[in-house]
Amino acid sequence: LAGPVATRFLASLGAEVLRIDPPGWDEAVLEPEITLGKHCARLDLRRAEDRQRWETLLRDADVLVHGYRSDALARLGLDVHARQMLRPGLIDVSLDAYGFTGPWSARRGFDSIVQMSMGFAEQGQRSARADKPLPLPVQALDHATGYLMAAATVRALTLRAERGIGSIVRASLARTGAVLMAGGTRPMPEPQPQAPESAADWEDASEHLVWGAARRVRWPLQVAGVTPGWTRPATPLGSAPAQWQA
Asked: What does each C-alpha distance from 211 to 33, 104, 186, 216 come to in angstroms?
């Protein structure tokens, strides 16, 4: 979720976001959340025609955000050097689970697995005096990493505007986890009764999506002087052509 969280936030700031998925990839349960503000297309980079289309898109892109394993694009002949050659000045934002060096650099992983392997669940078990591992109640690594990626992208865009240079941004769930763990732990608070739902919890307007009418929980992030907003509703994966709209 970290990449989709980052690009959803960038879309709220006015970025045109084109999400590319391979044929057959499906995240039906998450689509109403992860596609907000985006155009969603499909390409198979193993096909010559789709590969050419992807390279054409990259030449016109300001930012590339990707969450493949560190060697995935390289095996297609699209390592970081090749991407920079295709688009000089590109802001290349990459994410993986366990970092880009070391014996676990190519290992697959997602938030829950990284929490387990880093000791979050063990710490939760000890803090709660539970009889089994207790991970965090939310996908904290995904969301924290996603917002860090978005912030790094905005900073990189600023640097390019000032100096005319691109940037390479690398983020990992494990690194975000290490930062969180470095903050130490606190005693587990006593459970508190859940506050009743109120109108302030929800966005004012309803959305009419292909899945039906919906209302979103109010956007939790506040940035001084910024009012986030999306000009495009959430849509199914693969519902748009692989082209820039602007």
From this structure: 12, 39, 42, 14
> At 209, phi and psi to the nearest 5?
-105, 170
Positions in the chain short of pLDDT 50: none
Q: Listing from the earlier edge strand, what are the strands of the sheet with 167-172?
A: 63-66, 91-96, 167-172
β-strand 207-209 against 212-214: which pairing, if any? antiparallel
**Matching residue, tokens 């295709």:** 86
CB contact at 8 A, 67 and 141: no
177 CB-near residues (< 8 Å, 6+ apart): 114, 115, 118, 120, 141
Among 52, 8, 4, which residue's Cα sits nearest to residue 25?
4
Cβ–Cβ < 8 Å for 99, 172:
yes
- Cβ atoms 157, 91 nearer than 8 A: yes
Please tell me the pTM assigned to this model. Answer: 0.89
Residue 33 sits at the vertex; the CA angle it makes with 106 and 63, to the nearest 5 degrees, is 55
Quote the pLDDT of residue 13: 92
Q: What is the pLDDT of residues 227-238, one digit of tens each?
A: 888 888 999 999
Place of tokens 């849509």: 235
Dihedral sign of CA atoms 140, 144, 149, 150 in order: positive
Residue 83 neighbours by CB distance under 10 Å: 21
**For 2-188+195-214, which CATH class?**
alpha beta
Rg, Å, the chain Cα set: 20
Dig out the tokens for 43 from the structure.
């390409």
